[in-house]
Structure formats: C-alpha cells, structure tokens
Design goal:
The complex is a heterotetramer, with two copies of chain A and two copies of chain B. Chain A has twelve helices and seven strands. Chain A is an alpha/beta fold. Chain A has one domain (about 5-300): Rossmann fold (3-Layer(aba) Sandwich). In chain B, about 35% of the residues lie in helices and about 20% in strands. Chain B has helices at about 15-30, 50-55, 70-80, 100-110, 140-145, 160-170, 220-235, 250-260, 275-285, 310-315, 320-330, and strands spanning about 10-15, 30-35, 60-65, 85-90, 120-125, 150-155, 175-180, 190, 205, 210-215, 240, 245, 265-270, 295-300. The chains are: A alpha/beta, B alpha/beta. The complex binds thiamine diphosphate (2 copies) and magnesium ion (2 copies).
C-alpha cells in the first residue's frame, strides 16, 4: 500500500492536470490559445500513475495530447501555459505550442504532432541508457491510434531484441479523432501486438490511478533490472473529444456518463476519505490551493511577452 | 449532388468546389474510390468529404486506420489493379510518411513496366500556413514532389480552377498530387457546372500587365493580385501568372509573360531555399535572359520551421507589401 | 493427392527456375547482367507451390529475389532474360532490370527493390478484388527481412480488418543480406506477428513443394470464400547467398549441406519415381528439355537489341 | 587505426578516408556510436564500415533489423539523450523511409525546444548512378534535404575533403546528412592525418579560371574538372567551384566566382527540375545579375527514373562533353 504522501501526490497531480486543462480550454475559447489544442482531461490517471513511478532522470516521450504528461513529469506550469499561448517564456519560446513542448530538465523528449512519431524517440533514449548502463528508464506514451502505425512495431521489435529499458504505454481512449478505434483496428486483445515480440503485455484500467501506478511500477522495475520492455494498454477516455471545439456528435450520452462515473479523481478522493487517510474538508482545501496555483500560473503566462522578430530565426542550428 | 451545392447560386467555396468535383467524378465513374483517415462517417476533419459516405457507402468511401504508408501503398496497388483511388493525406507534413510508396513505387511503375501498368490516383492533401498549427502541421513541400519524374503536381488558387483541375486529376492516368492551401478553403467564386475540366499543365494569366510578371501558385496568387493593385497605384502594371500545376510545368506561358514585361518575381509559400521559386527563377534566367531588365527575384517563406506563435507565424507568409517592396527594388526604387 | 499432371507441373516449374537462375548467374559472370542480381535457387518450392495454387487472374507481388515468382506465375522466359540483361524486349524495356519486373498479363504487380515495398501493393489489389467481388486473390511474397518493416504490420491490420483476399507469404531463408534473421528479430514463433491481428498464421517447410502447395491452397480457398487473409511462413534457403558474387563467408559448410540435403527438386523427383508416377529416365528427359528451352530463351534474349535513346524518356507519364 | 589505413602512404580512397574519420572520431569520443543494417559483423555492404565492429564492439557498432523509420527515430532519441549517432541508410533512395523522423523530428527539435535539445547525428548514405542498380537504387535526393531548415547537407568530392568534412559532421551539434556518391568511393588522394577538419559551409575553388564558373558537388566536380581541361584547349579558362555543403550554402564563394568570370554553369547528378541546380542558378541570377555576360545555365540528370539498362543509364549522367557544349553555347559557339 502506498504511503499517504504518495497518495496525495497522485491526487495532487491529477487535480492539477484537470485544473490546468480547464484553464487551457478557457484560453482557447478566449482566442489566446489558437490552433489545435487537445485536452488531457479524463486521462489523468495514466500520466500521474506513470510518472509517479519514475525517477526524475527517467525519460518520457509524449504525444499531441500531452499537457498531462508534462505536468506529471514536473514541468513548470507557467512555462507550459506560456508555450500553449505562444509566449516567449514558454518551453519553445512559444514557437512550438501545445503539440511541441520539450523539457530537458524533466527529461521530457517532447509532446509530438506526429501520431506515432515519439515512440522511437523514447526507445532511442532507452537504447542509450542501456549502452551507458545509467539505469534510466524511458516511457513512451502514445494513443490507441498508434496501434496501427508501422513505426510502433519496428520500435517494439528493437526494444525486445535488445532488452531495452522502455515502457510502452498505450492510452486507449476509444477514438482516434472521430473514428472509433475498434472500427479500424484488427486483432483482439490489442495486447497481442506486444506479445508478438515476446514483450510482457497487459491491459489495465486507465481510470484507476492506483492500478496504473502499480502496473507501471512493475514494468519500470523490470526495465531497470535489465529485463527489457513492457507493453501496457490503459483504457481511458477523453472528456473533451479530440480537440477543444469538437462537438462530439459521434459519442452518445450513455457512453459519456459511463466514463464520467469512472472519473479517476473522485475515485481516489472517495477512497482517501473512506479509508480515513484524509478528511474531505482537507481535500477541498487542497483542491482550492491547487486551483489557485494553476490560475496564478495562467495569469503569469498571460502577462509574458510574445517572442520578438529575432526569435523567428533563432535555434535553426545548434552552435 | 453533394449537400453543400444544391443551391442554384453557383458561388462556391474552393472546398465545396472540390467536394463537388469529387462527387461528380465518383458518380460518373464507379472506379473512383476515396480512402483516408476520417473521410467517411466523419466527413473529413475539415468537412471536405462531407456527404460522400452517405451517398456512395462504405465500399467507395473508406475510413482507414492511422497507417499512412500502407494506406497509400494499398491505393497504389488498387490503382495498378484498375481502380482510380483518391487518397487523402490529412496534412501535407505527413507526406513524409508516404514518400517511399509515392516516389519509389507510384511514380516509377509506369516507366518500369514499360507502360504495362498505370497508377491513376489522386493524393489529396492540405498545406499552408495560417492556423497556428505549429511546425509539424504547416509545411508546403510541393517542391519535393515536383522534383520527382512521373508525378503530377496541382495547386489550385480558386474555386473554379480547383473543380476543373480536380476533375482532370481524377481522370488522369498518373499519380497526381493535389495540394490545397487550407487558407484558400473559403474563397468563393462562381463555379461552372459539370463538364468543367482544366487540363493539367496549363498556367493561366490571372491579371494582364506590362511591366513585371509575378508567378505564383494557390494562396500566393491572391497575394500577387493584391500586390498588383498596390503597384498599379505606383504606375507599375503587374501581370500575375498562376502556374496551377508545377508538373507538368507550363514553361511556354512562363517565358511568354516575362518576354513581354522584362521583369519577374517568383512568389511562394514554401521554404525558399531549394524550393519552387528557385526552379521558376532559374528557368526564366535561362530562357529569357535577353529580355530581362532586372534580376529575377524570389520571395518565399523564410527558411525556418513554421512557428506556432501567432506573432511569428504571419512573418513566414509572404505578403503584398513585401511583393511591392521587391518589385520596387527591381526598379532601383520607385520613390 | 495431386494428379500426375499437377505433380509434373510442380516439378517442371522448379526445374525451370533452377535452370533459369543458372543462366542468369552465367550472364552476370559474363558481364551481361550487371547490377544487383539475387538468385532464387533453393527457394523454388515456395514460388511454385504457391503459384500452382492460384488462378491465372490472381495477383502476385514479389520482391528483389523475384525471378522465381515471375516464372511460376507464367511470364515468358525470353522476356524475363531480356529484362535482366537490359534488352528492349524485356518487360520494362530493360529499364527496370532484375528487381523491377512487371507483367500485367500474369497479374504480376512486380518484383521490387524496396524491402517490404510490395506488401501493400498486393493488399491493395486484394482490396479492389473484394470491393468488386471478382473472386480474385492476391499473394504478397516477401523475405524474412520484412518481418521487421512497419509497412507489413500496417498492411496486415487492414487486410484483417477488411477481411481481404490476400495471402501473405514470408520466405524465411534465414538471412537478410549478411545478417542472420534471428539476430535482428524478436518474438518467437514469428507466426505471432500474424496472429496479433487474428490472422490464421502458420509455419511450413518451404523445401517441400507439396507442403507449400497444400498450405497455400487452403489459404487461397479461405481468401476466395471471403474469410480473409492468411500469414504463412516458409522456411527455405538461398543457395547463392544474397546476390551473385556473395562469397557467403558468414555461412558454414554444415549449414549449407544440411539445406542442400533438403533440396526441393530431388525431394519431389525421388517421390515421383518411388511412387512410380514417372520413370527416372523420363524425368531426365524432361530435365534436358527444360534446360534446352531455357537456353533457347536465354540465347533469344541475348540477340535482342538494347533500348534506344528515345526509350530513356518514354513512359514517364501515362497518356 | 582502421585496418585499411595502416600504410604510411597516405594515398587513400574516399571510402577509406571516411572510414578513417569514423574510426578516429569513435576513438576520441565515446559518445559516437554507429547504427545501421549490416554495418557490424559484415562491415558494410560496400565494406565501408570494415573493422569498426571488431575495434569498438557490439555496444558501439549496432547491427539493426530492416526498419529504416524506427532505426532513424531511435538515433534521434539517442542523440537527444546525449549520444552522437552515425546512422547509415544504405541507399539514398531509402531516405524516403526516414523522412518523417528526419524532417518532422530531427530537423525541428532544436528550434521547437528553444535550444533545449540538440540532435547531433550524422545520417550517412550512398547515392549516385553507375552501378546498374535500377530506378530504386540510383537516386540523388540531396535537393530535398537542402530544402529543410535545420538540416545540414554535405557532399564531398575527394578523399581528403571527405575525411575533413566527415569529422566536422560528427562534431556538429545538428543533424547532418553526409551523402557519398558511390562512384567516388575509389577515388584516391593523399589524406592528411588526424586533426583534419573542414568546417561545414565552405565551398572550395578546385580550379581557378577566368572565363566561366562551373559549380558542382561530389562526382560532378570531377566532370567539371575534366571539362575544364577540354575547355582550356579551346582557350576558355574555367573555374570549378566545389560547393562541398549545400546547407549551409557558401553563397559568398559562389557569387565571388561568377563576379570574376561573368558566366556560370551549374552541374549536378540529381534530377534537374526543382533540383539543386535551380537554387544555385537562381541565387546567381539574383545576386550577380549585373556581372552576367550570358544566361546562367544548368546541366543535371534528365527527369527520368534512372534506368537499369547500361545503354541508357550512362545517358542520365551529365558528362564532360555536355559541359563543354553548354559552355560553348554561352559563347554563342566557339568556332
Ligand atoms: C502521422 C499522423 N497522422 C495523422 C495525424 C492527424 N491526427 C492527429 S491526432 C489523430 C488521432 C490520434 O488518435 P490517438 O492516437 O488515439 O490519440 P488521441 O487523440 O485519441 O489521444 C490524428 C489522426 C497526425 N497528427 N499524424
Ligand atoms: C527498404 C530497404 N532497405 C534495405 C534494402 C537493402 N536490402 C536489399 S535486400 C536486403 C535483405 C532482405 O532480406 P530478406 O527480406 O530476408 O530477403 P532475402 O534477400 O533474404 O531473400 C536488404 C537489407 C532495401 N533494398 N530496401
Ligand atoms: Mg485515442
Ligand atoms: Mg532472407
């Protein structure tokens, strides 16, 4: 059983992400965060359950729905907001935006606009960790859509072949854009995609942060011990559809309600209160504190300047 | 008729004009099928395939997994076997994922088989800058495609052209890349009904002029036209040549224009270095040297990843003021 | 049990390929067939066992080691030779060469220089056959190297998803160029790569033409009946190494001899004689006849003219 | 020392010069690793990595499956994490398979991360025409790569340059594409020992001349030099400029040469249309217009798939006679 501190860390992480995404939604609706913004709300248990099982120098590589991973791995909220609204203090000087957030300080190889594009990046970092014997582990986060991208299979093969310390994490939220994953994906269960390479593979409830944490912890231990990769599928749900503005006409209310009833945040808070780890009042206080922190960060970001003309051509080449 | 064009008013957006072309070609030729991500029940992420699934059904409008390389390869195989697939690659940036099947298979099969097989397909893709979509969703790699023997490359600037060129593309027996700048999607104009087919390989002079020729494709044509208005005020009469297709390239029309005007500016929305403005400028320099009163100038996107930042993104789109400035430079200032 | 005629068709097919490849080797050594020439000798049972299970309007798509497939599917020997030595009467006017032989008359979508490149071509032809309800089947031949190319997995997924009439045939000859396949390929058995997509998958002896024929026949029936794809792996061996000129220092004699002892041609001929289907003398006669035919075709090809300057720019675009 | 260069005679082939560079850089920097198909125990399909496996072992010389996209992606990830991978893509034609990871990831990471991550890697690949390898094994797609901001593109013409440029490429903190024309592999010359590093972005005048400037990279440099000899006989003094790197492009040296000579021919082994000769010609036309006595001419490979046929294949390689003819054209004939 996890310590109270760890449990609160999980709770804090999920609530922070949820609050962050709500601010992003507002920013988008206010025209501050234009472009394609994909919210992570609903999937918090996956990012938080995973990143709390990692060391600070373990790598992650994320995808287009990646704010949650950045937060869970420890990026600064104001710099994240700043990037998402195109400000100079953002992680990419506002030049990357939501789908391109890189943070070397947290060993985050980036969110990514190419579906499947970041899978080999994590695998490559794992290759180097193995060659150098650093004990680092790399996590590759990807959506269910990647289950059909060739580069995933190529990466799985090399990871298995060389026993690389990488954990492949598929966040199956049921859809790729507006298409149901089950309509475009053959083979059941999907875990067989990992098993084909003799990689330990399993499916776990992605709405239960404790289950995620436990499953990932085992995989991380395996990786760190030199026993190679794991392929984990977490069933989860994107509350806001594909991107802010998606009317989600393709989803029915029943489905939405089912998943809302499985929301990972109340699930954890109810458990915490029931098991008397903490009082509801204290949680409410924590919620308020987190929300305040997030809003402060958002406001800080909004006050930041936009990049200037010189920034257009900065960093084309590294010195 | 597709849902959006039932109006008797034929004032259509470019997006709907292509949709209409697709509808008509699918109706008249059973061999035409549509393949891509979210093109079916969802009707396309920009609603660019709206209604097709309902009309033609799941056998002719096929929603695919996210597997760009193989989807495109399947289309090549289906084309070799006798169909005429339209394949959508959602963003031009993702062409990077189909390059092998496009360049090493589709473009060369007709040649390698000595005419034994054709590869009649249309690869439709959205390009361009302007939606704050960031470095991986804003590229215009048309120069790459025009470099490859065996491919045809079409880039319409107007709704009417888009319809006529798309119909020609579908009927063409070669792999045709049809690139639509998303920023032109809502441009409207009167679009002819039905049998409106524009042969691939014909440029069009969109505005006649006597002093300087401006060459462009798709969105940049409108930038050129706007600049031409400004230049008129300065008593410079600019001719605007819309290349419409990069391959085949209508060299005759290109050269004829500059022979008349003596000055040329080539404009484009793609990265400048080793891009399409280079080819047009070099061609003019080679074939019309004796007619030139000034160096052939180029104006294209700066050689930087297209930034998300709204403040910076617009700086990567050549604008009418810059065109005017370049032309002014050719005159050593117009003061 | 197959009829005597069918058995002799199998025999004739394999002997023709073997004799053809011997002529190609001579042509290469004589400088007539320059470039990269990959001989099929040793793998005859796969091409012949497969193509004899197909209708003439069934599609095949082949790879860089593809002469055998072209012959087994019925291409004309003189035009094949002509292509391989760059003559105008070749299938591609001598402009494709060994790795680029296309024959619409035999529904052959081509040999291919890109490892994995032809897999989606066959799958696409199968898609069309299914949409049109023609009853045609497509066979995708590929080497073991393709077991690690992403495009294979993407194709398998779509083939399974849409129940396409395609038979995926992996010719596992143990090596990709100079690298042992087992050294670069994770997951055992390899058939799990097909099973991950719920595709019926199995491994069969690729040195036994009857076994190949039987296995493929079942798969073809399944495909023709609308029951979708199969994934078949045939273990086999390339006697001549990667390409003509390969000294094969990476192979030991023991291995070579083991495989030679399993040669599919004597295996079939011994069976034919033992079961009194035909006398050895008649087989010897047949051998001589086939060899003569092959040599005539080779000589015809050698007399053909090379393409002329105008052919350089012919067929860039179809009319 | 790698096995092939133990001789005190420093007359090395280009292939061995690169091998030596690789050896030296791997020896002096533990972070340099080599990844690719058949690069290890087999020593490369052209013996271009011979001996490295034996010296540096399986942890630094890594044989991979045939998985170009992911191999390259792994290298990008490893580079971001702090190593300096050299990745071999066996044939330049197979670049089509790594374009996404190259263009959408490697080229843009430094920019998108505002300098947070570097991607210091060398993608080494063989290009060129001449081995009768057919349409899918003979392409030279350097123009594509030079078009992409963030990539460096190196194309050596001689053994000594190859060594110096390769060492610079390995030490560079960016993704560098190092393209070797297989037809230059056996060119020999004296190669300096050890600390011989040529900065990327510097063209070199390989032959001084007064009347015409010929620009080229890799194999074409030798064609230009041969043509220069022929032209000398006709009393035309040709200057040969070896660009050496396409990105960064040494515009200064390019322009200086034509300012001196007044005539320019750009030569290349890639497809002509929308290829690299276009960019160089356009640049010269723009920046040296007033110095030009004749149109800037281009001579590159015809726009056809490179045929297998020995009779036809040579027709796709620009030769010295054609160069002489083009230059002669500039003079309106030379009598
Ligand atoms: C290679 C590529 N193809 C297509 C797209 C367009 N696209 C963006 S997100 C997306 C759906 C991805 O689905 P999934 O992996 O399940 O992630 P989710 O959005 O559900 O989190 C698609 C098709 C892309 N960005 N990259
Ligand atoms: C995409 C691609 N990568 C690499 C090569 C170079 N190559 C040609 S054949 C070959 C080995 C293929 O092995 P396999 O599929 O087992 O076929 P085999 O030669 O054994 O019949 C390689 C790596 C290629 N032609 N295409
Ligand atoms: Mg999803
Ligand atoms: Mg093999």
């Amino acid at each position: 059983m996890l310590t109270k501190d760890k449990l609160l860390e999980l709770y804090r992480g999920m609530v922070t992400i949820r609050a962050f995404e709500e601010e992003v939604r507002k920013m988008h609706n206010a025209g501050l965060a234009p472009g394609l913004v994909h919210l992570y709300s609903g999937q918090e248990a996956v990012a938080v359950g995973t990143c709390t099982a990692l060391n600070s120098d373990d790598y992650i590589a994320s995808h287009h729905r990646g704010h949650g991973h950045c937060i869970a791995k420890g990026s600064e909220l104001d710099r994240l907001f700043a990037e998402i609204i195109g400000r100079r203090s953002g992680y990419g000087m506002g030049r990357g935006g939501s789908m391109h957030i890189y943070d070397p300080a947290t060993f985050n190889l980036g969110t990514n606009g190419i579906v499947g594009g970041s899978v080999p990046l994590a695998t490559g970092a794992a290759l180097l960790a193995k060659l150098r014997g650093t004990g680092q582990v790399a996590v590759s986060f990807f959506g269910d859509g990647v289950l059909n991208q060739g580069i995933l299979f190529e990466s799985l093969n090399m990871a298995a072949l060389w026993s690389l310390p990488v954990v492949f994490i598929c966040e199956n939220n049921g859809y790729g854009e507006f298409t149901e994953i089950d309509d475009v994906t053959a083979g059941r269960p999907y875990a067989k995609r990992g098993e084909a390479f003799d990689i330990p593979s399993e499916k776990t409830d992605g709405m239960d942060v404790l289950a995620v944490h436990e499953t990932v912890s085992k995989a991380v231990t395996r990786a760190r011990n030199g026993d190679g990769p794991s392929f984990l599928i977490f069933d989860t749900y994107r509350y806001s559809g594909h991107h802010v503005g998606d009317k989600q006409e393709y989803k029915d209310d029943e489905e939405r309600e089912l998943w809302l009833s499985r929301d990972p945040i109340p699930k954890l808070s109810e458990m915490l209160v029931a098991e008397k780890k903490i009082k509801q009042a204290a949680l409410d206080e924590l919620d308020a504190e987190i929300k305040a922190t997030v809003i402060v960060a958002a406001n800080q970001a909004k006050k930041m300047p936009e990049p200037d003309a010189d920034d257009l051509t900065r960093h084309i080449y590294a010195a | 008729m597709p849902p959006d064009s039932q109006q008797t008013d034929r004032n259509l957006t470019l997006k709907d004009a292509v949709l209409e072309a697709m509808f008509e070609e699918m109706e008249s030729d059973q061999n035409v099928i549509l393949i891509g991500e979210d093109v079916g029940t969802a009707g396309g992420v920009f609603k660019q395939t709206k209604g097709l699934f309902k009309t033609f059904g799941a056998d002719r409008v096929i929603d695919t997994p996210i597997s760009e390389s193989a989807i495109f390869g399947l289309a090549v195989g289906a084309a070799m076997a006798g169909s005429r697939p339209i394949i959508e690659v959602m963003f031009g940036d993702f062409l990077t994922l189909v390059m092998d099947q496009l360049v090493n298979q589709a473009a060369k099969v007709h040649y390698m088989s000595a005419g034994g097989f054709n590869v009649p397909l249309v690869l439709r893709t959205g390009i361009g800058v302007g939606g704050n979509l960031g470095p991986q969703h804003s590229q215009s790699l048309h120069g790459w495609l025009a470099h490859i023997p065996g491919l045809k490359v079409v880039m319409p600037s107007s709704a009417s052209d888009a319809k006529g060129l798309f119909k020609a593309a579908v009927r063409d027996n070669n792999p045709v890349i049809f690139m639509e700048d998303r920023m032109t999607y809502n441009l409207k104009e009167q679009v002819p009904e039905d049998e409106h087919v524009i042969p691939l390989g014909s440029a069009e002079v969109k505005r006649e002029g006597a002093d300087v020729s401006i060459y462009a494709v798709t969105r940049s044509v409108h930038t050129a036209l706007a600049a031409a208005e400004h230049l008129q005020v300065k008593n410079v009469s600019a001719e605007v040549v819309d290349l419409r297709t990069l391959a085949p390239l209508d060299v005759e029309t290109i050269v004829a224009s500059v022979q008349k005007t003596g000055r040329a500016l080539v404009l484009d929305g793609g990265y400048q270095s080793f891009g399409i403005t280079s080819e047009i400028a070099a061609t003019i320099g080679e074939l019309a040297f004796d007619y030139l009163d000034a160096p052939v100038m180029r104006l294209a996107a700066p050689d930087v990843p297209v930034p998300f930042s709204p403040a910076l993104e617009t700086m990567t789109v050549p604008n009418a003021e810059q065109v005017v400035a370049k032309v002014t430079e050719m005159y050593g200032g117009l003061g």
